[in-house]
Amino acid sequence: MSGHIQMDISDSQGSKPPSPATNEAWRTYLRYIIAAQFISSLGFGFAAPFLPLFISEVGDLSNREAALWAGIIGGVSGTIMVVAGPIWGILGDWFGYKRNVLRATFGTFAVFSLTAAVQNVLHILALRGFMGAVGGIFPAIMGLSSSLVPRAQLGYVIGLLYGVVYFGNTVGPLLGGYFVNAAGYRWGFLVSGLIIGLAGLIILLGVKEAPHPKSATSRRNIVAMWTEMKGLWTIPDVRRVLFVIFLVQLANNFSIAIVPLFLNSLDADAKAPAVGIFFALLGLAITISTYGAGVLAGRLKLQVVFLLGASGAAAGALLMSFASSVPLAFGLSFVLGLGAGLLLTSSSAMIGLVLPPDRQGFAFGMVQSASALGFGIGPLLGGVFANAFGLHAPFLVQGAIFLALLPLGLIVARSRGRETGQPV
Length: 424
What we know:
79% helix; mainly alpha; globular; Growth Hormone, Chain: A
């Protein structure tokens, strides 16, 4: 994702407010953004991985019943985000990206904090639906970063943000697992919300954005929004790459909702700390492989990196379906994470080749929608399969989806290379 966001910030006299990207201020702002992204990722990972166990406790459900409800709740949140993502992206293009970050962080803060007080599974469902409506923190932060940093630094910054996200997702579950084991799930969600709220305060107080004057936005309306959405969707490359991103996220999230219950089925004593270790290893592997993907991208064609990722992820998932112990599941989670990181990075690079540089907010919103659709449908289908066929079944289907990505990724990359003449 290497395009620079062109912010529409002309005033009524045609002048342009100074952008932080024109001086060294962007470096200071970037430090605050990186800190906020790490803290929000840590906060999210502090409690979110244990939601299926909390659902089981609140609803007094069996493992299979909890798996189904976890899938439904994840599906509702992701499906709502599919619609909300592009809308928030366009509003960011029109009115400012900082507002988007504040909306996402404080909205997520409210959801996690209120989760500590829920009395039944339907309360959790409603809160997660609201979280889908306020959108994701990471796409909003990517849009804000793209509007602030110089174009020459944008590729480095996006890669840095990805690394920070997965590092936070490594530390968060590890700390959260031991915390909720000692203090309980409700305290875990409350602390998680407070951590995410801190990230919002860092952006609110530490980052300044060139204003979007009223004259530049007064003509923005729902018709213009619909026109922009249709215009981007008519680009064939965009549709193809978004479909790949959807399948990548579908595969990545197919088993995520049932992992705590899966580990518990392998060992009845495997509670929150074991779940935390599993997701910490997964996040660590993704962190390593996203960095490695950047190194490999300079030496190998994009399609090769994608194929390596799909192959590795497929191997990890398929072997996980036959896992018989928690330690073996830990090792395979690392293998799965290595492949997933390569897939995430290479598919992001594909979208960076096809998106208009002056619509990055909307572009990130479209990416968020494709990702959210996979994030929503994946856990839902995974929960259904677990409920019907057992807790090992989702990993078998997950591996099959990763294998299906092999020819599809190759076709998309070759198509893009023929049309642009760029090596892929």
